[in-house]
Amino acid sequence: RKNNEYKNKDDIGFTRGVRNTNDFYNFTLDSDSNFTLTLDQLKRDANVMVLDDEGNMVLSGFNPGNAPEFVNGELEAGDYTVQVFPVGAAKTNYFLKMNADPITGGGGGVPDPDPVPEPGEDPDGTLATANDLGNYQMSAQSGAVGFSEDGYDDLNDYYKFTLPAADNVQIVLDDLDQNADLSLLASDGSILYTSSESGIDPEFINVSLDAGDYYLQVTAVGSAQTDYTVQFF
Q: Residue 73: exposed, middle, or buried by beta-carbon count in 10 A (0-12, 13-18, 19+)?
């Protein structure tokens, strides 16, 4: 698909002769890639898993209720299947978005420390191109997501920060015009925590972390377009 992105609207859990309890999407990665998946516009609870070619779960999203699912991580080249399924007797529409960006420059799953975006590529829309904030400290960052800019759709903004010692981390996403969510990722791209409040309510993450590198992901929900402020305390 265009810009390595796939989008599809469908539903799950409804009965049309037999009940549809699983939707499967197969895809192939030609190279090691940073993979991002969003499952949103849910009316009821549905979950998502990413399976390798042996059927083993490698990534998953199991947020409760109708909260959107956000999946992000590095995948090796190969064949994969995405499985969307309802929780219990739930019936819901959904909007599935998937994106895979080849890992370049860093090697061994380490983001390139000084990447150069290609023309029409979101300059901070992947782990490899994250805005590096350096050591964790009290600060504020402003940005915008959901808008089309310079030939690309700015669906995600990533920020990298380093925790020099174990500490309690407080992060707030606010000043929203429309709905956006906030996720905290480990250095390997796996999601540690996600805040998914409705509408323009602020998102909060308050957690104790070990020393190391971490990423923040700001994501527009559905077709939302919004400015935002991320604050560290």
A: buried
CB contact at 8 A, 169 and 212: no
How far is Cα of residue 126 from the mean position of the Cα atoms in its chain?
10
The amino acid sitting at 100 is A
Q: Report the distance separating Cα 12 and Cα 31, nearest Å.
A: 31
For the record, the structure tokens of 136 come out as 């964790």
Helix (H, G, I), strand (E, B) or coil at 83: strand
Residue 217 CA to residue 156 CA, distance in Å, equals 7
CA distance 29 to 39: 20
DSSP summary character for residue 74:
E
What is the block-wise mean pLDDT of the chain (233 residues), using blocks of 10 residues? Answer: 76 92 93 89 90 88 84 89 92 91 57 44 66 81 81 79 90 91 86 84 89 90 88 81
Task: For residue 4, report the phi and psi dihedrals to the nearest 5 degrees.
Answer: 60, 25
48 touches 19 (CB < 8 A): no
C-alpha–C-alpha distance, residues 130 and 87, integer Å: 34
